[in-house]
Design a protein that fits this description.
Blueprint (H helix, E strand, L loop, with lengths): L4 E6 L4 H10 L5 E8 L8 H5 L11 H4 L4 E2 L3 H5 L4 E4 L5 H12 L5 E3 L15 H4 L6 H8 L6 E3 L9 H6 L5 E10 L25 H12 L2 E3 L2 E3 L5 E8 L6 E9 L5 H10 L3 H4 L10 E4 L7 H4 L8 E8 L5 E7 L3 H17 L7
Parallel strand pairs: 1-2, 1-4, 2-3, 4-5, 5-6, 7-10, 12-13
Antiparallel strand pairs: 7-11, 8-9, 11-14, 13-14
Keywords: NADP, Oxidoreductase
Family: Belongs to the aspartate-semialdehyde dehydrogenase family.
EC number: 1.2.1.11
Length: 361
């Protein structure tokens, strides 16, 4: 790429916005040139606006500290400074839908971490290794919006990343039923242990809205693009429980699966280890070289040892074994703010750039 694309981050002061900033430092294709947030942050330098609320283990990049934060609601003003934006705004669902469409209508592509548009009929929800072909839905969306370059694309919920890739890898064996319990890190709520001291040594057996997302979103990701819309996968039927646990980063899933065509353990492992998609084929900058690793040790995957596999962009699977009620069971682990949130959105943007959907204005 001869010239880096100009990137804006909507909701730049929150945890996911911070993660976008960290990931895009020294990115070979993109340059962060605009940061936007709420009115209370607008007019301040980014360093002033964030203050003591920088939540990441790595320090704030020097190149953003002195950028003056814009008001995210001044859509035209923000849009004229960028080629595309990442959205991590903290608003109501209706407000998010409205503001993301407003940016798209300025001919600014929006790659969103938010859930608001995940079920909008013509907005693709993509894990690039699994369903990059769903980005073709963008043409239908542009016709509705009346745009030539502007559109919205989203990534799915962080909770599904630790088991949905397995279902995609095992598609030829036709999974029919899935029972998954996810043990989810506190950064998924935008918090760390300083913000949420009551989570130390604690478990909360409820995360609002998470179980519905975990059961339904995989069916859209695994669905088929047909006649300008996504037809949901009819199988597998999925039921989940989602539990908040005292871990900073990393969502773990304990999963049980039934198959229509009965595979062997060796066949399942082979499919995991060789599963790849568009990001690997095109060697995209943020793509893990191997999307899924299978670990043979009985005590893996572990958050402390495996959450940063492939810079947090890979998925770790272990303890695959036959079950007395279901065909097989396994444990999966993914990094919720990297693969599951900002990193997954960056990989979507790279895929969209490579496919020609995102270009300079």
């Amino acid at each position: 790429m001869d010239k880096k694309l100009r990137v804006g981050i909507l909701g730049a002061t929150g945890m996911v916005g911070q993660r976008f900033i960290s990931l895009l430092e020294n990115h070979p294709w993109y340059e962060v040139c605009t940061l936007a947030a709420s009115q209370r942050s607008a007019g301040k330098t980014y360093e002033e606006a964030v203050g003591e609320r920088w939540k990441l283990e790595t320090p704030m990049p020097e190149n953003v500290k002195k950028l003056v934060v814009l008001n995210v609601n001044e859509v035209e003003k923000v849009a004229e400074t960028v080629d595309f934006v990442f959205s991590a705004v903290d608003m109501s669902k209706d407000e998010i839908k409205a503001i993301e469409e407003a940016y798209a209508k300025t001919e600014t592509p929006v790659v969103s971490n938010n859930s608001a548009h995940r079920w909008t009929k013509d907005v693709p929800m993509v894990v690039p290794e699994i369903n990059d072909q769903h980005f073709e839905l963008i043409q239908t969306q542009k016709e509705r919006l009346g745009t030539t370059k502007g559109f919205i694309a989203v990534k799915p919920n962080c909770s599904i990343q630790s088991y949905t890739p397995c279902l995609a890898a095992w598609a030829e064996f036709e999974p029919t039923e899935v029972v998954a319990t996810t043990y989810q890190a506190i950064s998924g709520a935008g918090k760390n242990f300083t913000d949420w001291p009551e989570m130390v040594g604690n478990i909360i057996p409820f995360i609002g809205g998470e179980e519905e997302k975990s059961e339904k979103e995989p069916l859209r990701v695994l669905g088929e693009l047909k006649d300008g819309e996504i037809v949901l996968a009819s199988e597998p039927r999925i039921t989940t429980q989602c539990i908040r646990v005292p871990v900073l980063n990393g969502h773990t899933a304990a999963v049980f699966v039934n198959f229509k065509k009965k595979p062997t353990k060796e066949q399942l492992i082979e499919k995991l280890e060789n599963f790849k998609g568009y990001p690997q084929e095109e060697s995209l900058p943020s793509a893990p070289k191997r999307f899924i690793q299978y670990l043979t040790e009985d005590n893996r995957p572990q958050v402390t040892m495996d959450v940063d596999y492939e810079n947090g962009m890979g998925v770790s699977i272990g303890r695959l074994r036959e079950d007395s009620i279901y065909d097989f069971k396994f444990v999966g682990l993914s990094h919720n703010t990297l693969r599951g949130a900002a990193g997954g959105a960056v990989l979507c943007a790279e895929t969209l750039t490579k496919k020609g959907f995102i270009q300079g204005k």
